[in-house]
Amino acid sequence: MSKISKFFKGGGSAASKGRGGPSPQEALARLRETEEMLSKKQEYLETRIERELAVARQHGTKNKRAALQALKRKKRYEKQLNQIDGTLSTIEFQREALENSHTNTEVLKNMGYAAQAMKKVHENMDLNKIDDLMQDITEQQDVAQEISDAISNRATFGDEFDEDELMAELEELEQEELNKGMRDVRLPSVPSTSLPSRPVTSFMSFIPALTPVQLAIQKRAEDEDEMKKLAAWAS
Q1: Alpha carbon of residue 143 to chain centroid
Q2: Biased-composition ranges for Gly residues (predicted)?
Q3: Architecture of 24-125 per CATH?
Q4: Per residue in 83-128, pLDDT tens?
Q5: pTM of the prediction?
């Protein structure tokens, strides 16, 4: 049991009930009644003081005895009035202290109830279980984040192949196709029969004599023509 609970449930409260003491509300009500009574007594004494002053003025020196008696009564009333002022101050201080004590008691009582409620709430809580629970929550959050990242990433099917190897294989295929094309090229066969010969004299008679420069140009043209023919056969 907490100290606050002992304060409200312990011997202090029981002893108060055993003595038959008043409650704070009852004591405050009594003090307010006393203050009201003394305030009325103050008003009465102030009235009597004014009356005795009037009597003293009325008699004056004509009737010194009556005037002096009135002044004596006025002094007694003033003394009582001063005593009542002091009593009211004391009662007011006691009432304020009791009100503050009652307020503090109610505050402590409510705080005690709140402490008991918190204790009751925490009875079924295990700190080790809470730590395990928070760890599980953290792990599941990590798993959820990994799943979210996996879903949001672009699919990369087929990226496990090496691109350099694929390019090398493609080059090999192109080289094979090129080699195959070269094998399929058929050059014209050399005729087995000899061409008919013409008399050199008759053939040369129609060709004018060429200069060395003209002969070189003609030779170059013939070579280019042969290369074009070979390129046509290869394609």
Answers
A1: 21
A2: 9-21
A3: Orthogonal Bundle (1.10)
A4: 999 999 999 999 999 889 888 888 988 999 898 888 888 887 777 8
A5: 0.40
Single-letter residue type at 209 = A
| Two tokens, residue 181 | 């094309």
Summary mean pLDDT of the chain: 77
Domain boundaries, the chain: 24-125
Given a contact cutoff of 8 angstroms between Cβ atoms, the answer to whether 170 and 178 are in contact is no
- Look up residue 190 and give its two tokens: 């050399």
Name 77's Cβ contacts closer than 8 Å, sequence gap at least 6.
Answer: 45, 48, 49, 52
Q: Cα–chain-centroid distance for residue 4?
A: 36
Distance CA 169, CA 176 (A): 11
CA 231 to chain centre: 79
Q: Residue by residue, what is the 3-state secondary structure of 142-167?
A: HHHHHHHHHHHCCCCCCCCCCHHHHH
- Distance (Å, rounded) from C-alpha 208 to C-alpha 62? 193
Query: Distances from the Cα of 67 to the Cαs of 46, 52, 75, in angstroms?
Result: 18, 9, 13
**Angle between helix 24-59 and 64-122 (nearest 10):** 170
What residue spans of the chain are helical by DSSP H? 3-9, 11-19, 24-59, 64-122, 127-152, 163-183, 200-206, 212-234
Residue pLDDT, tens place only, 200-216: 444 455 455 666 666 76
